[in-house]
Amino acid sequence: xxxxxxxxxxxEKYGEELRLRRMAAGLTQETLSxxxxxxxxxxxxxxxxRRLPKPDDAARIDQALGTDGFFLRWLEDLESKxxxxxxxxxxxxxxxxxxxxxxxxxxxxxxxxxxxxRAVFExxxxxxxxxxxxxxxxxxxxxxxLDDPLQPVLWTVLDEAVLRRPVGGRRVMAxxxxxxxxxxxxxxxxxxxxxxxxxxxSLMESMMTLMTFxxxxxxxxxxxxxxxxxxxxxxxxxxxxxxxxxxxxEAATRQESLAxxxxxxxxxxxx
Length: 271
Hints:
Pfam families: DUF5753, HTH_31. This protein has helices at residues 10-24, 29-36, 40-48, 55-65, 70-75, 84-92, 114-124, 132-143, 160-164, 170-185, 234-250, 254-270; strands at 96-103, 153-159, 189-194, 207-213, 219-224, 227-231. It is an alpha/beta fold. It folds into two domains: 10-75, lambda repressor-like DNA-binding domains (434 Repressor (Amino-terminal Domain), Orthogonal Bundle), CATH 1.10.260.40; 84-270, Endonuclease, Chain A. α7 (114-124) packs across α8 (132-143). The protein is elongated.
C-alpha cells in the first residue's frame, strides 16, 4: 500500500534534485561537502530541504556537479520571507484543510493584529529596526488565509497567560483580544482557553501546531527560541495529536473562553 505523504515544499524539491544530481555524479555527501567547503551535515540539511545554501555555496555546488549555474539560478526563486526554521511551515499553511494550534505565551501569528505583531518583533529585536516593517508585512500576509470563510478549519487553544501578558500595552491588547473574539463569534475560529485553574496539562512545555491535508499525511510543528522542529513521522504526529486532545479536554468551553476573552479585553480598556 502506498504511504500517504504531505505536500512537498519548493525547497524540498530543490533538495531532492540536489541529492539526485549528487548521486548521478557519483559523489557522497562527504565528498561534495569537501568541494563546497562546508560540513557533510550541512549538505544533508540542503538535501532534506531544511536549509537553503547561500549563493556562494550554490555556485560551488554547481561547479562540483557540473550543473552550469542550475542550483544558483533556482535558489533565487526560493529565498523565503520567513526565518529558516519556519519557512517550510509557512509554505505548508496554505495547503492545510485544518490547522490546530496551541500557544503558551503569545497570540499565534495567524491571529495577530498589526499592532500586536509590531510589539512582538520590537521585543525580539529591539536594536534591529531596519527590516521591521517588512517582517510585519510578511506576518500579515499569512493572516490572509483566513479570508476564505471555510478553509482551513482553524482550532486555537490559548493558555490564559496569552491573555494576561500586555504585549504592546493595554490598547493593543484590547484590540487583539477583540479580534480573536470576533473570529470566534463568527465561527471562523474554534477557540478554547486553558485557564490557570486547569493546572498541569499535556502541552505546558511548548507551543504546537498540527496541520491536516486533503490528500497527504498530517504534520506537527513545535517551536522554541529561534528554532523549530517539523515532524512528519506518523508515531510522533500521533503523539502530538493525543497531547493536543488531552489539553483540549482540560480547556474551558467555547462559550466560557469567549466570555473570558471579552472580559479581559474590557479590563484592558478600563485599566
